[in-house]
Amino acid sequence: MRTRTVLITTAMALVAVLGTAGCAEAAPTSAAASYRNLPISGRPDYQLGGSYTPPSGVTIVERDSTAKPAKGTYDICYVNGFQTQPEAARTWMKSYPSAILRDRAGKPVSDPGWPDEMLLDTRTAAKRALITKVIAKTVARCGDRGFDAVEFDNLDSWTRSGKRLTRAGNLALAKSLVAAGHRHGLAVGQKNTPQLGASGRKQTGFDFVVAEECVQYRECAAYTKVYGGRVIDVEYSDTLERSWGSVCKLKSRPAMTILRDRDLVTPKDDAYVYKRC
């Protein structure tokens, strides 16, 4: 996770959901409904800061799980799969306290970059099963609302856990979440985490990637070598250290690369930025 936009309506809806909970294309398992993978070409938009009519020519739209999918596009549903949303913290603490990672003193462990997000505890099969059960409610809603795919943010939370979590534990949870997505007829996207490589995809079953700033951090090849054309890259206007024209000329960038403002605001906001190659 390299950016985050908090919406009050999103948080309220997420709390309600939590409160009810007790290169070749990956094929669906026998237990999964059929799903349509991310196209290998298209024009994406990343609308986590608020829904709006996509710019002309856009064919792929990602929105928060509480939003409705766009009409006439391939739609991706955003879900925070490995950390808690800030406004949902109380629900997690009250209803699923064992799912929260804690330090030796028993205090919740937060993301150093986003101290209002608690890390979910992926260390045991029992904890992973509980997390999956909770998040599967949101996944089901994504499917019911008509989304085509889901992507789970903060897959790399183990790198920010002070060595409490492990890559293996997070990948095990990822595999479980991927299965949940497939059961509801959704393709499932890996979020960032270029270090996974082909072996990580094999372990989890991810179908595509949503990457942030892979041009800026020179990570794009780590994704395209594994997923081919099924890679969406979102660059941010406040940190990109080269001109947008030069980005579009790069042969190494994913074909589906866009530029957005950091807070992912709507076109009504003066800070709105959207460009595509």
Describe this structure in words.
It comes from Curtobacterium citreum. Residues 1-26 form the signal peptide. It holds the Pfam family Glyco_hydro_114. Keywords: Signal. There is one protein chain. With 277 residues, the chain is an alpha/beta fold. It has one domain (8-276): Aldolase class I (TIM Barrel, Alpha-Beta Barrel). 29% of the residues lie in helices and 16% in strands. A nine-stranded mixed β-sheet has the order 1-2-3-4-5-6-7-8-9. It starts with 7 loop residues before the first helix and ends with a strand. Residues 5-16 and 22-30 have low confidence and may be disordered.
Describe this protein with a few key phrases.
single chain, 277 residues, alpha/beta, TIM Barrel, 9-stranded mixed sheet, 9 strands, 29% helix, globular, GH114_TIM-barrel
What is the strand and helix layout of this fold?
Layout lengths: L7 H12 L24 E3 L13 E5 L9 E7 L8 H7 L29 H21 L3 E5 L13 H17 L3 E5 L5 H8 L3 E5 L7 H8 L3 E6 L7 H6 L6 E5 L13 E3 L1
Parallel strand pairs: 1-2, 2-3, 3-4, 4-5, 5-6, 6-7, 7-8
Antiparallel strand pairs: 8-9
Helix pairs in contact: 3-4
Helix content: 25-40%
**Whole-number total of structural domains:** 1
How many DSSP H or I helices? 7
Rounded mean pLDDT score: 91
Total strand count, please? 9
Second-tier CATH architecture: Alpha-Beta Barrel
Keywords: Signal
Signal peptide: 1-26
Pfam families: Glyco_hydro_114 (PF03537)
Domain Glycoside-hydrolase family GH114 TIM-barrel: 45-265
